[in-house]
Amino acid sequence: MTSDVPQSSNIDLTPNTPQEDVAIEKTEELESLKIPDLEGEKNPVVDSSDQDLSPIDEKLLPVNLEKTIEELTQEVEELKQHKQVLIAEIEALEVSKAQKLSEKTQTVEATLEKMIVEGLKELQQKKQTLELSVEQLERRRDRIREEMKTSFAGISQDLAIRVQGFKDYLVGSLQDLAAAAEQLDLPTQQSWEEPSEPVNSPSVSNSTLQFAPQEFAEQTRKIQEILEQYRRNPDYYGPPWQLRRTFEPIHAERVQKWFFSQGGRGTIKSMGSRLQNILVASAVISVLNELHGDRTRFLILANTPERLGEWRRGLQDCLGISRGDFGPERGVVLFESPDALVQKAERLEEDEFIPLVIIDETEEQISLSLLQFSLWLAFAPDPQQMNSYLY
Length: 391
What we know:
The chain is about 55% helix and about 5% strand. By secondary structure, it is of the alpha/beta class. It has 2 domains: about 45-165; about 210-380, P-loop containing nucleotide triphosphate hydrolases (Rossmann fold, 3-Layer(aba) Sandwich), CATH 3.40.50.300. Helix 8 (about 275-290) crosses helix 9 (about 305-320). The longest helix is centred in the first third of the chain and has 96 residues, at about 55-150.
């Protein structure tokens, strides 16, 4: 029979030596420090190289750490140097920027200074020009005052010559009128006491057209009514050829004097500006158009296109007429030369029209041929004041 006692294997039952105990302890410590496998295996295999860690490897660790510290220190030094370089570049850029800004500021200041100098030069030139103009006007004023002092009643010799020529013309005209009146067939006293037929007012020819109140009472009353209407009830949106502007008493006084005292032929003292003179002339034109309708023609004389343009605009504004009313065959005709105006006025009288000649204030010399017509109106400048529109 076989014995139930197991057969003994070759087992070493001898106690371990101290060196072997130390090796076993180190192995257990290494196994306890072993990092488990990332793949999570149940039976991780221990690398024999991990178990062979010797005390020499532990001594190498401080050496690597010192090398790492040296490398980091070197990198820090390099970064500090790079920082210093960047700071230097930033300072250089700021200096460059400040220099450029200073250069631009200097350029702008130089440009402004140049502009100011040029502006001052221009202003000085204008000032000199104005001073020369003022000196010329002052000399002209002094000369006029001297002429007024040396001439009789403040009238210069030239004006006295013109007045004398006009006087001679008036004397001749009055003689012609007297001769024409002697040839009229006047009614006798018996015919006045017992008129057989109603007496109609005689027709007035173009050459003897007058507005004296004692001869034309009906026309005088109508003219006064029209002027009173313009003064008290102005119609700013009335029909063409009717006055559309405010009519002051001073304007009415000028117009009444021309109609009733001067008989529609003479000069009116200037109102001080061309626009005011145009307003007075517009009132006269409106009254004549109301009395005679399309038979009237108005001839304006001024020696420059600019003044004629101002007359055209002023008449359009005061009378509500258009550019179509101006022209050789229209209601208003503009002239720069008195000779052309005289020829036109003579043709109009031949065609049985009633021309009114209006002479601008700036006409220094008036042709005597203009005074032959039955209606003419001239504006005389006031020698005691400077005209504001002379150019």
